[in-house]
Design goal:
Layout: H1 2-21, E1 54-57, E2 60-65, E3 79-81, E4 87-89, E5 98-102, H2 109-120, E6 130-135, H3 139-149, E7 155-158, H4 164-169, E8 172-173, E9 178-179, E10 182-186, E11 192-197, H5 207-219
Parallel strand pairs: 5-6, 6-7
Antiparallel strand pairs: 1-2, 2-8, 3-4, 5-10, 8-9, 10-11
Length: 220
Protein backbone atom coordinates (compact mmCIF):
# COMPACT_ATOMS: atom_id res chain seq x y z
CA UNK A 1 0.00 0.00 0.00
CA UNK A 2 2.88 2.36 0.87
CA UNK A 3 4.64 1.59 -2.42
CA UNK A 4 1.39 2.24 -4.27
CA UNK A 5 1.09 5.61 -2.54
CA UNK A 6 4.67 6.51 -3.57
CA UNK A 7 3.91 5.58 -7.20
CA UNK A 8 0.85 7.83 -7.17
CA UNK A 9 2.86 10.71 -5.63
CA UNK A 10 5.67 10.38 -8.18
CA UNK A 11 3.25 10.05 -11.09
CA UNK A 12 1.36 13.13 -9.94
CA UNK A 13 4.60 15.10 -9.56
CA UNK A 14 5.86 14.11 -13.01
CA UNK A 15 2.48 14.87 -14.59
CA UNK A 16 2.51 18.30 -12.96
CA UNK A 17 6.05 18.91 -14.15
CA UNK A 18 5.12 17.98 -17.70
CA UNK A 19 2.21 20.38 -17.48
CA UNK A 20 4.37 23.19 -16.05
CA UNK A 21 7.19 22.83 -18.53
CA UNK A 22 5.06 21.97 -21.53
CA UNK A 23 7.50 19.14 -22.27
CA UNK A 24 6.27 16.14 -24.16
CA UNK A 25 6.98 12.54 -23.17
CA UNK A 26 10.19 11.71 -24.98
CA UNK A 27 10.50 7.93 -24.87
CA UNK A 28 13.67 6.84 -26.64
CA UNK A 29 13.96 9.77 -29.04
CA UNK A 30 17.32 9.79 -30.72
CA UNK A 31 18.42 6.42 -29.34
CA UNK A 32 18.70 4.88 -32.80
CA UNK A 33 20.40 7.74 -34.65
CA UNK A 34 22.16 9.44 -31.77
CA UNK A 35 20.69 12.06 -29.49
CA UNK A 36 19.53 15.25 -31.20
CA UNK A 37 20.78 18.14 -29.07
CA UNK A 38 18.64 21.27 -28.93
CA UNK A 39 19.78 24.86 -28.55
CA UNK A 40 18.68 25.23 -24.93
CA UNK A 41 19.58 28.22 -22.72
CA UNK A 42 22.32 27.62 -20.13
CA UNK A 43 21.93 29.11 -16.66
CA UNK A 44 24.54 31.68 -15.70
CA UNK A 45 24.57 31.75 -11.90
CA UNK A 46 22.90 29.70 -9.23
CA UNK A 47 19.85 29.74 -7.02
CA UNK A 48 20.20 29.06 -3.29
CA UNK A 49 19.02 25.75 -1.85
CA UNK A 50 16.68 25.35 1.09
CA UNK A 51 13.74 26.78 2.97
CA UNK A 52 12.93 30.38 2.14
CA UNK A 53 14.39 30.12 -1.34
CA UNK A 54 12.87 29.21 -4.69
CA UNK A 55 13.46 28.46 -8.35
CA UNK A 56 11.24 29.71 -11.13
CA UNK A 57 9.50 28.58 -14.23
CA UNK A 58 8.91 31.50 -16.61
CA UNK A 59 9.13 33.87 -13.67
CA UNK A 60 6.72 31.99 -11.41
CA UNK A 61 8.42 31.05 -8.12
CA UNK A 62 8.42 27.47 -6.85
CA UNK A 63 9.42 27.16 -3.19
CA UNK A 64 12.19 24.81 -2.11
CA UNK A 65 12.06 22.62 0.99
CA UNK A 66 14.85 21.47 3.30
CA UNK A 67 17.87 22.84 5.18
CA UNK A 68 19.86 23.65 2.02
CA UNK A 69 23.45 22.95 0.94
CA UNK A 70 26.39 25.02 -0.20
CA UNK A 71 29.95 24.57 -1.42
CA UNK A 72 32.10 23.28 1.42
CA UNK A 73 29.34 21.17 2.98
CA UNK A 74 29.66 17.41 3.34
CA UNK A 75 27.31 15.07 1.50
CA UNK A 76 24.53 14.15 3.91
CA UNK A 77 23.38 10.67 4.81
CA UNK A 78 20.22 9.96 2.83
CA UNK A 79 18.96 6.82 1.16
CA UNK A 80 18.00 6.63 -2.50
CA UNK A 81 16.85 3.63 -4.53
CA UNK A 82 18.89 1.68 -7.05
CA UNK A 83 17.44 -0.04 -10.10
CA UNK A 84 16.60 -3.19 -8.14
CA UNK A 85 14.75 -1.08 -5.50
CA UNK A 86 17.42 -1.66 -2.84
CA UNK A 87 18.45 1.45 -0.94
CA UNK A 88 21.91 3.03 -0.86
CA UNK A 89 23.19 5.92 1.23
CA UNK A 90 24.41 8.49 -1.28
CA UNK A 91 27.20 9.47 1.12
CA UNK A 92 28.55 5.92 0.82
CA UNK A 93 29.60 6.64 -2.78
CA UNK A 94 32.76 8.33 -1.44
CA UNK A 95 36.23 7.30 -2.52
CA UNK A 96 36.16 8.90 -5.94
CA UNK A 97 35.34 12.30 -7.44
CA UNK A 98 31.68 12.44 -8.45
CA UNK A 99 29.40 14.59 -10.55
CA UNK A 100 25.87 14.37 -9.19
CA UNK A 101 23.37 15.61 -11.76
CA UNK A 102 19.93 16.34 -10.27
CA UNK A 103 16.95 16.54 -12.62
CA UNK A 104 13.20 16.97 -12.09
CA UNK A 105 12.19 14.15 -14.48
CA UNK A 106 14.03 12.27 -17.22
CA UNK A 107 10.92 12.46 -19.41
CA UNK A 108 11.26 16.19 -20.10
CA UNK A 109 13.34 17.87 -22.78
CA UNK A 110 15.88 19.73 -20.62
CA UNK A 111 16.39 16.80 -18.23
CA UNK A 112 16.97 14.43 -21.12
CA UNK A 113 19.54 16.75 -22.68
CA UNK A 114 21.28 17.36 -19.33
CA UNK A 115 21.66 13.59 -18.88
CA UNK A 116 22.89 12.95 -22.43
CA UNK A 117 25.35 15.85 -22.10
CA UNK A 118 26.78 14.35 -18.91
CA UNK A 119 27.12 10.96 -20.59
CA UNK A 120 28.37 12.01 -24.03
CA UNK A 121 30.10 15.41 -23.81
CA UNK A 122 32.53 14.81 -20.94
CA UNK A 123 35.61 14.21 -23.14
CA UNK A 124 36.78 11.08 -21.35
CA UNK A 125 36.17 12.38 -17.82
CA UNK A 126 34.07 9.28 -17.10
CA UNK A 127 37.29 7.24 -16.94
CA UNK A 128 38.27 8.96 -13.66
CA UNK A 129 35.06 10.47 -12.32
CA UNK A 130 31.83 8.73 -11.32
CA UNK A 131 28.61 10.12 -12.83
CA UNK A 132 25.36 9.93 -10.84
CA UNK A 133 21.92 11.15 -11.86
CA UNK A 134 19.20 11.62 -9.22
CA UNK A 135 15.53 12.20 -10.04
CA UNK A 136 12.10 11.39 -8.59
CA UNK A 137 11.39 9.01 -11.48
CA UNK A 138 10.88 5.44 -10.35
CA UNK A 139 13.89 3.11 -10.68
CA UNK A 140 11.95 1.28 -13.41
CA UNK A 141 11.50 4.49 -15.42
CA UNK A 142 15.18 5.35 -14.95
CA UNK A 143 16.18 1.89 -16.17
CA UNK A 144 13.96 2.20 -19.22
CA UNK A 145 15.42 5.62 -20.01
CA UNK A 146 19.03 4.40 -19.70
CA UNK A 147 18.35 1.40 -21.91
CA UNK A 148 16.58 3.37 -24.64
CA UNK A 149 19.18 6.16 -24.52
CA UNK A 150 22.01 3.60 -24.53
CA UNK A 151 23.61 5.29 -21.53
CA UNK A 152 25.94 3.01 -19.57
CA UNK A 153 28.33 5.40 -17.83
CA UNK A 154 25.85 6.97 -15.39
CA UNK A 155 24.53 5.47 -12.15
CA UNK A 156 20.84 6.34 -11.81
CA UNK A 157 19.46 6.76 -8.28
CA UNK A 158 15.81 7.42 -7.48
CA UNK A 159 14.33 9.75 -4.86
CA UNK A 160 10.81 8.43 -5.44
CA UNK A 161 10.36 7.22 -1.85
CA UNK A 162 9.10 10.51 -0.40
CA UNK A 163 11.75 12.88 -1.74
CA UNK A 164 14.18 12.30 1.13
CA UNK A 165 17.21 13.34 -0.95
CA UNK A 166 15.48 16.54 -2.03
CA UNK A 167 14.47 17.38 1.52
CA UNK A 168 17.94 16.64 2.95
CA UNK A 169 19.64 18.92 0.40
CA UNK A 170 17.04 21.69 0.15
CA UNK A 171 16.36 20.75 -3.48
CA UNK A 172 12.78 19.50 -3.19
CA UNK A 173 10.24 21.66 -5.00
CA UNK A 174 7.34 21.61 -2.54
CA UNK A 175 4.49 21.81 -4.99
CA UNK A 176 4.46 19.92 -7.26
CA UNK A 177 6.65 17.19 -5.78
CA UNK A 178 9.92 16.98 -7.78
CA UNK A 179 13.57 18.00 -7.57
CA UNK A 180 15.12 21.29 -8.60
CA UNK A 181 17.67 21.14 -11.43
CA UNK A 182 21.23 21.10 -10.12
CA UNK A 183 24.74 19.77 -10.61
CA UNK A 184 27.17 19.03 -7.79
CA UNK A 185 30.85 18.10 -7.94
CA UNK A 186 31.95 16.17 -4.87
CA UNK A 187 35.51 15.23 -3.92
CA UNK A 188 36.76 11.83 -2.69
CA UNK A 189 36.07 12.83 0.92
CA UNK A 190 32.42 13.80 0.27
CA UNK A 191 33.01 17.56 0.32
CA UNK A 192 30.91 19.53 -2.16
CA UNK A 193 33.39 21.54 -4.24
CA UNK A 194 31.06 22.90 -6.94
CA UNK A 195 27.31 23.52 -6.93
CA UNK A 196 24.93 25.09 -9.40
CA UNK A 197 21.17 25.16 -8.96
CA UNK A 198 19.56 26.56 -12.08
CA UNK A 199 17.43 29.57 -11.05
CA UNK A 200 15.05 28.79 -13.96
CA UNK A 201 13.84 25.20 -14.45
CA UNK A 202 13.79 25.51 -18.24
CA UNK A 203 17.53 26.26 -18.36
CA UNK A 204 20.41 23.80 -18.59
CA UNK A 205 23.09 23.91 -15.89
CA UNK A 206 26.60 24.80 -17.06
CA UNK A 207 27.81 21.21 -17.44
CA UNK A 208 31.14 22.32 -18.93
CA UNK A 209 31.93 24.27 -15.74
CA UNK A 210 31.10 21.16 -13.70
CA UNK A 211 33.36 19.07 -15.95
CA UNK A 212 36.20 21.55 -15.41
CA UNK A 213 35.79 21.44 -11.63
CA UNK A 214 35.68 17.64 -11.60
CA UNK A 215 38.68 17.32 -13.91
CA UNK A 216 40.72 19.58 -11.61
CA UNK A 217 39.81 17.47 -8.56
CA UNK A 218 40.51 14.19 -10.32
CA UNK A 219 43.94 15.43 -11.39
CA UNK A 220 44.86 16.65 -7.91
Amino acid sequence: MIAHHHRITVAAGVAALLAITGCEYLGGMGAEKGFMYKDLPVANGSATAGDGHSVTFKGSPLALEGPGIKVGDQLRDVKVAKGDLTLVNIADTKGTVRIISVVPSLDTTVCEQQTHYLSEKNNGLDKNVEFITVSVDTPFAQGRFAKEAKIKNITFLSDFRGGDFGKAYGLLVKDPHFLARAVLVVDKDNVIKYLQITPELAQMPDMDAAFKAARSLAAG
